[in-house]
Design goal:
Layout: E1 9-14, H1 20-32, E2 34-38, E3 52-58, H2 66-74, E4 81-89, H3 94-110, E5 113-122, H4 143-168
Parallel strand pairs: 1-2, 1-3, 3-4, 4-5
Length: about 170
Amino acid sequence: MEIIPERKSLLIVYSYHHNNTLKIARKISAVLDADIKTSLEIDPDRVSDYTLIGFGSGIYSAKHHDTLLSLADTLPPVNRKPVFLFSTAALIGEAKTRNDHRHLREKLESKGYVIIGDFSCKGFNTNSFLKYFGGMNKGRPNDQDLNDAEEFARRVKERYLALSLQSHDHTPE
């Protein structure tokens, strides 16, 4: 008899320059008891081993990093698997986050994933010309950003549990 390992959460992260997104991923991971892996460590066919997945990176030219977008292209189709998106960026706001997450969101939704949450906060940025001026958002993500990420993870967990209960509710009519 094969033993099926306990399914759990997974965060797929690309964090490069200052580990901004990794700091956020660690906070979310603590709440969700999630594994953290890079997009290069993921076997697309094994993603189905996880019941809840988060995709996160810094924002580069108004989208998640290309490695996450490429991974999304290789994922097999699923049937309504819950996922969430997160990012760190130089500038934030609800409309900006919606636009920044649009490319990854569209790729995942086309494969059958259901986005149950989005999170973004400021991150220290020394890209392009900013490096000559000492960067932008030094000290970010800060304690408040980390607290916000933790609260976001709690909301994601509640949504995930609610979805799980709905899918297992077989009450006869």
